[in-house]
Amino acid sequence: MKLEGSKRWLIAGIAIAVLVSMFSAQFNRYYLGIAIDCGISIILAVSLNLINGHTGQFSLGHAGFMAVGGYTAAKLSLVCSPLVPESLRPLLFLLALVVGGLASAVAGLGVGIPSLRLKGDYLAIVTLGFGEIIRVIVQNMESVGAASGLKGIPKDTTLGWTFGLAAITVYVVAALVNSTYGRGFIAVNDDEVAASSMGINPVRYKVTAFVTGAFFAGIAGGLYAHHKQFLSPTGFDFLKSIDIVVMVILGGMGRTAGVIIAAILLTLLPEVLRQFADYRMIIYSLLIIALMLTRPQGLFTFGRAKKGAAEV
Amino acid sequence: MDWLLQQLINGLALGSIYALIALGYTMVYGVLRFINFAHADVLMLGAYAAYFLAPAVSAVFPLPSVTGALIIVLAASLICACIGMLIEFLAYRPLRSRPKLTVLITAIGVSLFIEFTCQHKAVFGADTKPFPKLLPATDFHIAGLVVSSNDLVVVLVTALLLAGMWFIVQKTKIGTAMRAVSFNQQAAALMGVNINRIISFTFGLGSALAAIAGILYALKAPGIEPLMGVQPGLRAFVAAVLGGIGNLPGAALGGLLLGLLETFAGGISGLSNYRDGIAFAILILILLFKPAGLLGKATVEKV
Amino acid sequence: MSQPLLTLDKATIKFGGLTAVGDFSLQVHANELVGLIGPNGAGKTTAFNLITGVYQPTDGTIHFAEKRIAGMKPHDLTKLGIARTFQNIRLFGSLNVFDNVRAATQLHRSHGIRSALWRGKGFHHGEREVEKQVLELLDIFDLAKLRDEEAKSLPYGDQRRLEIVRALATKPKLLLLDEPAAGMNPTEKEELMKLIQFIKDKFKIAIMLVEHDMKVVMGICEKIAVLEYGKKIAEGTPDEIQKNPKVIAAYLGTGEDEDA
Fold first, then answer.
1. Structure pTM?
2. How far apart are CA B280 and CA A60, in angstroms?
3. What is the per-residue pLDDT across A62-85, written as a single tens digit (0 to 9) for each?
4. Pair A27, A96: CB distance under 8 Å
5. What span, in angstroms and rounded, lies between the C-alpha atoms of C174 and C222?
6. One-character DSSP codes across C69-94
7. Is A303 exposed, middle or buried (0-12, 13-18, 19+ CB in 10 A)?
8. What is the mean pLDDT of residues C74-102?
């Protein structure tokens, strides 16, 4: 059955990730690190895409959700890993990630609900504000290292975990949006008044988008924490949120495949431009301006109208 | 009691600077319905303009002096007015018909571009540079309080500029045109208003104000650096929204209120660490409960 | 006469000092075709917005299927059975024709978010049902072959038809059409009249129509209510309305120019 394919892709994706991961000891450390970075970016971009791209809720605070998830997962790991035998470590890791994701989901609820009535500019500013508030709170929490950061997080993140979770993220967002239920997200984006007149509850969809997006951002945060082994509040600032937003815009808001490619590209770009590190941010900001002036619909918008029947 | 009054004076001075910056935000929002993220960076450019002009001006009118300061301020605001108009022309005008979000992202891009370019060692460098003393500064000791002359200057200058702005917007032809454009761009165009010129003028005016605010801010700050505009800009933006974005008296009111709130909060121990967060918290609260701001009017969407 | 489906009882809405709709009382019965007419600015669309929950009445009550509906949100009212089209077409621009209608079927669906994620047998069965339903509906209105077209690229007349089809997909008991004939030429208007009559007969629903074109209104409505400055000045059959001096005065003025 054609529709069964989506679940097959998911299983295949996870399987490949795990398989490749088993050989990761052979890989160059540096490239491995970058690959994991790409995977984390994919999760961040695809989860933001649900909020910004599909549902049209302009969120500039995604880094805040990442921070909540990352710090929660890291703290749990740090506290519990001495108590857990080596063999159960992967389970603890998974638990930490999920708890981090749930914590972010709650944050997503906290941000999503008040933001409901706001549109465009105002919504962007409020979400920016929330992101900054989260950062300021973390910066003042001694229990997670405050401004000097959280150190010594166990290195649990592997290629398998990262891409396996990325596959799940992509599956969840795509499966959600490409169903009859999911058309509601796009309807709310296109015309909220018309959508509500067709029985679609805009509040429910917006909040669902925020909570789901935040959950996966939290998972990404957890993966990030156990990859870099160090967390600092400055890593989750406004600039980080903009990073993710640019990935979504570059990929074409709402186009999953485009967003994935954009996430990979924009993660590789700073590595490729290493020698120009001095100019990196200047080039980056020019890129944003140029993109908006010339191709605001994104670089990867191929294929016109989406097909009618449910598909992934 | 003394402490209270002292904080009041400090708060007013700070609030005046916020008010000046907020005016720029609110004017641009009024005519274009968009938040100019790069406004805060013009503030920084104004301070740097003064920094570079100071030695040249000092050769003729040795600083600190009132004449010297005046010349520098005038020159800096002119320079920044031009920069502001240039930004509008290059980055925002081409996007006039595009969705608001596109322009918002572009504004963020412009802001980042200015900040990062200025941080580069070939331009200004990321280090903090000491700001020259432009005015003879003395401290007045009145009834046990310390009032710095700089603070008095700030409040005075702001009051004068606010009055000037009010005059321009309410009593001049171009000000009426600005108001017309902010109410209904299409109708204003049909009535013969040159939209492009008005928008340019608004940007120029707002940028000039930002430059002056930047210089005033630098007078009290420990030094200037490329990211100096970010925090005041943010606070001023919150102030503009607090007062009702698009509303000039609202911007002034919001600026003063925020300056006072922040100064008082800063004096309360434990709260001072959260200063950054407080501005945002206020912002979120206003947008949630009274999105039109204190003096603004809510608009209803026609179905 | 059976219990009315929709009852407006002195429904009023004020915006500041302006009474957009005042003391409006009207009954619509099941499978009835009612017209709402009046000069521009009379409050017709506002009345629609009251019925569909976009606005809340400041006074008076509204009952639908014997439930008080004042204060209910639009999406809940749609679940109860009120659907509408808009004066300025409001299709879902980034969706194609098929999906525009599909989005409107979701309120009656039993499979929602969880099954979309799990994608078990129930989900696929449900999606197939939806596809069948949507295609059937599109077919009746001759839009099935356009299913993959972007909704906003359709010709105007097709867009209006699509909006109606989308509203029908919510399985309404009452369908509100806001100026469906706007921008149509005489031939299209003839077809629209037949279409509305067809919908009434086939789907057995009540229809309320706001229209400026008198030929359309008088041609198909069983009952007409006339609004002027937010107040109902007349109600009756097309014949009665056409002869009513108050109505004539409202439209043609009493010797002075009527305001637009």
1. 0.87
2. 13
3. 999 999 999 999 999 998 888 888
4. no
5. 15
6. -TT--HHHHHHHTEEE--SS----TT
7. exposed
8. 92
CA atoms within 13 A on the CB side of A303: 10
For tokens 């879902």, what's the residue?
C92
Q: What is the ipTM score, two decimals? A: 0.88
Partner-chain contact B237 A125, CB within 8 Å? yes
Chain C nearest-CA residue for A173? C117
> Is the separation of the CB atoms in C81 and C174 below 8 Å?
yes
Inter-chain contact C86–B303, Cβ cutoff 8 Å? yes
Provide the residue type at A101 as one letter. Answer: G
Do residues A5 and A312 lie in contact, with contact meaning Cβ atoms separated by under 8 Å? yes
What is the SS3 string spanning B172-235? CHHHHHHHHHHHCHHHHHHCCCCHHHHHHHHHHHHHHHHHHHHHHHHHHCCCECCCCCHHHHHH
Strands (E), chain A: none
Give partners of A (≥3 CB pairs < 8 A).
B, C
Q: Which residues contact A41 (CB under 8 A, 6 or more apart)?
A: A244, A247, A263, A264, A266, A267
Distance from CA of A168 to the nearest CA of C (A): 11
| Nearest-Cα residue of chain B relative to residue C54 | B303
* Chain A residues near residue B112 by CB distance under 8 angstroms: 239, 242, 281, 284-285, 288
- CB-based contact A184 C106, cutoff 8 Å: yes
Tens digit of each residue's pLDDT (9 = 90 or more) over C21-49: 999 999 999 999 999 999 888 889 999 99
**Per-residue three-class SS string for A140-162:** CCHHHCHHHCECCCCCCCCHHHH
Residue with tokens 């019965």: C29
Q: Is A252 left (phi over 0), alpha (psi -120 to 50) or beta?
A: left
CA distance B110 to chain A (A): 7
